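My current task is to audit a protein record that another person submitted. I need someone to confirm that the token line plausibly describes how this chain folds. Take the sequence as given and treat only the tokens as open to question. This is what I was given:
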Amino acid sequence: LEFRRVLFRSGIVGEKADGFVGFVRPTSDTALEAAVAEINAGRAELYRQAAARNGVSVAAAGAAAYEQVVAARLRPGEYYQSVDVTWRQK
């Protein structure tokens, strides 16, 4: 959990409007790439389950999770990607 906070607070990664984590700046650090892939894999599974329960697409479940949960938890200084795919800092 603390590692995730460091990733977000450092501005390396941010929350995307599709409910997944993305790199704000390109990186060649394979450990960071693996950490983001692990986070996104866990989220993808949650979105698949939510999509099945609610009869919606996985993309819709991810976007809804961003709108209802993720966006509300963003802290000042953290990055997020708006629907127009622009990275912004809260």
Notes: The longest helix spans residues 30-54. The beta strands are 13-16, 21-23, 79-81, 87-89.
